[in-house]
Amino acid sequence: MDRPRQELYDRIDLRMDQMIAAGLFDEADALFEKRHLNSLQTVGYIEIFGYLEGKYDKEEAIRLLKRNSRRYAKRQMTWFRRDAEIRWFHSGQQEEIFSWIVTQMA
Q1: pTM for this entry
Q2: Theoretical Cys-Cys bridge with 56: which of 41, 42, 60, 98, CB 3.0 to 4.6 Å?
């Protein structure tokens, strides 16, 4: 799916707010002692670990979490746009999406 950049960024910010409300900080706190593991060196955990280490306050951690998530999404889009076989659709193109799926299954 392709979305206008601002819409994508707004959706990322909203999703981060939802994850935080659902306990992302508590989850990261429970994993804090294992923060050295490669599997925890990811967007989301890194920013919260910085907060838990006292490098910055919670508001800054949230700002960094959202910013870095948006940057990661931008890198993903750049990567996937290089693949000429990927067919991009906008969210409002339901008929075109279904038609394309049907042709791919035939």
Answers
A1: 0.83
A2: 60
